[in-house]
Amino acid sequence: MNPLLQDFNTAPFQQIKNEHYKPAIEKAIALAKQEIDEIVNNTQTPTFENTTVALDFTGEKLNRITSIFFNLNSAETNDEIQKIAQEISPWLSEFRNDITLNKALFKRVKAVYDSKESLDLTPEQSMLLDKQYKSFARNGANLPEDKKTKLREIDTKLSKLSLQFGQNVLAETNAFELHITDEKDLSGLPESAIEAAKEVAKQKEKEGWVFTLDYPSYIPFMTYADNRELRKKMAIAFGEKGFQNNKYNNEKIVLEIVNLRHQRANLLGYKTHAHFVLEERMAETPEKVIEFSNNLLEKAKPAAVREFKNLANYAKKLDGIEDLQKWDGAYYSEKLKKELFDLDQEALKPYFKLENVIDGVFTIANKLFDLHFEETSELEKYHEDVKTYHVKDGNNNYVALFYADFHPRPGKRNGAWMTSYKSQQIKNGINERPHVSIVCNFTKPTATKPSLLTFNEVTTLFHEFGHALHGMLANTTYNSLSGTSVSWDFVELPSQVLENWCYEKEALELFAKHYETSEVIPMKFVEKIKESASFHEGMQTLRQLSFGILDMKWHSQNPAEITSVKDFEKVAFSDTQLYPDIPENCMSTSFSHIFQGGYSSGYYSYKWAEVLDADAFELFLEKGIFNKEVATKFKDHLLSKGGTEKPMKLYKRFRGQEPKPEALLKRAGLIKP
After folding, report:
1. 472-502 burial by CB neighbour count: b if 16+ within 10 A, else e?
2. Is 240 a catalytic residue?
3. Is residue 137 part of a domain?
4. φ, ψ for residue 581, nearest 5 deg
5. Model confidence over 40-89: pLDDT tens digits?
6. Per annotation, catalytic residue among 76, 464, 504, 610
7. 182 is in which domain, residue-wise?
8. Contact by Cβ (8 Å): 93, 159
9. Are 387 and 503 in a shared domain?
10. Which of the listed residues 387, 404, 479, 551 has the most CB atoms within 10 Å of its CB?
11. pLDDT at residue 673 above 70?
12. Residue 480 sits in the same domain as residue 401
């Protein structure tokens, strides 16, 4: 019996075997096609209910199964799962095209859309109809048959290429290790990093210490290791993922992806891929994104150049470094930060035991939104590290199911993300609550210490939890508008706004307690965290902008003439470059956000959302960071509304005005308060 084809509420992780996926997905596609046929063959006049709503509820089984499969392909993959992913991706691409290129179905959708003025729809219904019609029109429904065939070919190729891109990056990440046998090469490294490296070596049945390209291993090494040559070795390995002369090289894949995306956009009547993508975003056009990026660049660059010169002088004065390189940046920044603010990241870690930080973020969610989290052991998990929680509100109503997966392992990709196993929706009068998950890569507990987080990791946890709140507090009728189903340049607002609580004394006192003594984090540390928050903000801003600019360069022009990924990238980075170029390194070949994830033509969203989040948090600062009235407005107008209305409308309803960039520039120390 195939567990994926039974009716289930929570994902039956422990019953699923790899051989279940393909037959289940095949069957679920057939079921979804039947549901589509029922809509198409309905002899009644197309209405909002029998066409628009019916279509939104199709493919539920398929969505549940594929969400399990692709989430595990990111968090708990293996060779077999990766192989299955390559086989099923074309099926799913073909199925999506079967819907958007279905003439009879589009005819019904268009009939409802054309009569919308007379339908007396609510804003949410209107948004659903609008979104649905555009999903057809923007994906080829109006194309002649020959062009529809071409579109199908492109989509199938793209789905396979982005999967291959991600698999290559993961393979390169797993393939590298820095094996240290001489203890003096560990000089400068904190005890926690040394202990973790010892554990990795033990797992790999090696003597000594092993460091990898996983963030909890890589970042402490780059920040603290005194041995410059070894830092260089690590940095080059990190930067050459997908750029080596081996079977995992991604250069050709990058060029194929950008060219296919461009051809696809042209086929649909758009000038470039960026024009196609941005039409449905808050930013609307590439020109607006470029103008936004250039304005920030103008404000940040003088500060970044100044900060870089100071850092270079500091490294020269300290160690006689004549040419500051990328592998020196984190190392000397940390030393300078410690000197300027007397703030040692390692001294902070004992106050950020993972379990305490989790309790802290739960307490903050409770104070703001009346949410209660109860850990439960009765739910099936895909790995023993996963924690599961029931989420309820102040009246004991069921709000959501929450999965959290915090530690790195070989089958898990780097980074941190939020995802969902079941969307919220109201169906047959029942408000079906969501199943939401966050996945991170934090240092594992060792034989002598619990998992202790860096301050950066604390903000990462809050960030992903902000996304999770957006998913958990969803309260819309239609699943396609629920939770994080919003404009891509709006989706980062809930996540980034929550990071602000990490810097506030009132919030830190709730959870930042020493793991051995339970002493609350000393106020001098809190003040220093706040003081140092804008340290090297010019350089950080320039770095974020450089990624967004690279993304726009790839996608806002015709890439047909580009022959060298590296040369193209060097030109794209010319206005934002501070460190000397490393010939062996290339960013694009492992830029998973835009070539594997959904951020193509959208990386600017992080900075865009920072403007929103700084502006939104100003209101909390004015009224109090736990002010119930402001929190309720934030929940009612933003978190619960998903994509039911235009983001700017929702934002203005919360804030009373459009966001102003001044709050961000002030917070970043780029303009005087």
Report:
1. bbbbbbbbbbbbbbbbbbbbbbbbbbbbbbb
2. no
3. yes
4. -70, 145
5. 999 999 999 999 999 999 999 999 999 999 999 999 999 999 999 999 99
6. 464
7. 176-239
8. yes
9. yes
10. 551
11. no
12. yes
